[in-house]
């Protein structure tokens, strides 16, 4: 589970026993109507329907130990789409079967297999790619932290892969994805950080852009956000491709930068002047006098990218300087 939040819903004594086996391996909040008994970790409910929305939003995974049909009726009003819904599993009251209900390719299938092993049950996997032994595009995207664009083409191209039809994969990054080392004359998958205009292709966007930032003391969160958005738009980069933001260590306390990183769901790297000077190609005496480093934006992006490819040497937007490197190239 890797620290993800888990909820288990039980309504019988058998269900409570099953939940205890699961929590011996995975920490979880157990929700019960009291009929199955309780422990110090249980949360009692009077009626289940009023808390379903909260469960599906608050917990990364919710396991219902009850009939599959009942689970479907309970959760269906709150489902949005396969990319934003959290995972849901169902276990029958006798503990014989573990069924991924929502998010099979987003972790539910794998978890069903793990849970089944814990309680000595049978995982019931029904997603087409899994039962045919073909890895799904969604699983690949999750493995390599990729976002989808033109998602309306996902089912069509996934069907091509499952049915053995030719698919043409064009990788415009340096990221090695063995599962997608395929080519043919069929529908196209483009792996890229650059915005594409063809609405018929499926676009997969990996996190391969390392941003370096230098900014003045008075630069605000808004200044930094505008700076990043300006560079992304000018060079037609997908924001989802941002792998990291890097800067000099004297900026470590800047809350605006930390909020930007939170918004972009990426880490911030802080480097000492000595580390930056080892990777400084531009030697600015002005920057050196202020920071002790000859370069901040460019050198920090270069450092984070493992000496990757420079694709934006430097852009100055008011009081923010941004450089962009392609990781690992």
CATH third-tier fold name of the largest domain = Rossmann fold
Judging from the principal axes of the Cα atoms, what is the shape?
A: globular
Instruction: Identify low-pLDDT runs.
Output: none
The major β-sheet equals: 7 strands, mixed
How many separate structural domains?
3
Which whole number gives the mean pLDDT?
90
Helix segment count? 12
% residues in beta strands: 25-35%
CATH architecture of the largest domain: 3-Layer(aba) Sandwich
Q: Helicity, in percent?
A: 25-40%
The first-level CATH class name of the largest domain: Alpha Beta
Structural class: alpha/beta
Written as H for each helix and E for each strand, in order along the chain, the element string is: EHEEHEHEEHEHHEHEEEEHEHEHHHEE
Question: Got a strand count?
Answer: 16
The radius of gyration over CA amounts to: 24 Å
Report how far apart the termini are: 32 Å
């Amino acid at each position: 589970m890797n620290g993800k939040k888990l909820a288990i819903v039980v309504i019988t004594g058998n269900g409570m026993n099953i939940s205890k086996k699961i929590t011996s391996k995975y920490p979880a909040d157990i929700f019960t109507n009291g009929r199955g008994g309780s422990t110090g970790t249980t949360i009692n409910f009077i009626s289940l329907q009023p808390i379903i929305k909260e469960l599906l939003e608050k917990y990364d995974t919710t396991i219902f130990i009850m009939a599959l049909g009942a689970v479907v009726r309970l959760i269906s009003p709150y489902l949005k789409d396969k990319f934003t819904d959290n995972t849901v599993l169902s276990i029958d009251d006798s503990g014989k079967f573990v069924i991924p209900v929502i998010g099979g390719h987003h972790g539910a299938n794998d978890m069903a297999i793990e849970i089944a092993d814990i309680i000595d049950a049978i995982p019931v996997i029904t997603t087409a790619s899994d039962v045919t032994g073909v890895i799904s595009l969604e699983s690949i995207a999750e493995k390599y932290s990729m976002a989808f664009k033109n998602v309306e083409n996902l089912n069509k191209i996934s069907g091509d892969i499952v049915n053995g039809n030719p698919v043409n994969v064009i990788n415009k990054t340096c990221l090695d994805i063995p599962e997608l080392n395929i080519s043919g004359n069929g529908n196209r998958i483009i792996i890229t950080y650059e915005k594409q205009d063809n609405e018929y292709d499926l676009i997969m966007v990996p996190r391969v852009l390392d941003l370096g930032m230098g900014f003045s003391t008075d630069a605000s969160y808004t200044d930094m956000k505008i700076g990043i958005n300006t560079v992304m738009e000018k060079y037609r980069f997908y924001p989802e491709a941002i792998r990291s933001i890097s800067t000099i260590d004297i900026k470590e306390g800047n809350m605006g930068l930390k909020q930007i990183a939170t918004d972009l769901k990426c880490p911030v790297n802080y480097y000492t002047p000595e580390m930056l000077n080892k990777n400084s190609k531009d030697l600015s005496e002005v920057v050196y006098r202020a920071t002790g480093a000859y370069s901040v934006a460019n050198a920090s992006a270069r450092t984070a990218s493992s000496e990757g490819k420079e694709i934006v040497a430097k852009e100055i937007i008011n009081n923010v300087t941004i450089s962009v490197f392609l990781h690992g190239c």
